[in-house]
Amino acid sequence: MGFFDQLKTQASAVTTNLQTQVSKFKNKEFAEGTMAMCALIAAADGSIDASERQKTTALIVSNETLKIFPPDELKTKFDFYCNKLSADFDFGRIEAIQAIGKLKSKPDQARAVIQIGVIIGGADGNFDANEKKAVRDACQAVNIPPGDFGV
Fold first, then answer.
1. Is pLDDT larger for residue 9 or for residue 150?
2. What are the extents of the domains in the chain?
3. Helix (H) or strand (E) segment spanning residue 149
4. Which of 49, 71, 103, 122 would be a feasible disulfide site paired with 61, CB 3.0-4.6 Å?
């Protein structure tokens, strides 16, 4: 089995596990943290172009794991963090990391947010260095070793 086939198999297993976990996490902090993580991944290279934003939005609303939340609510939260990151990347990054950091006392939820970030980052087949750094930053915000996610 090739590397990419193994990666797809692992991603599928993670997604199935996440669907089970996320159904327990239907709360505001989890939704906020998840959308902040998605925005961080979308802006990982320092900017978010319209097509990147659109593709990430499509991934969010089509993701089985996130179907426990109303899609328009997720889109609103995602747009909020994208707008913050676009207006002032450094300040927006801090705000997004703070939203993720609110899950520090809820390690299961924090891990699920990080896993969603990894899935979104790898959705285009290229989990690049900037996206990995965004995941590492989120891990540090919730005191989870980045190595747990291979970053």
1. 150
2. 3-149
3. none
4. 71
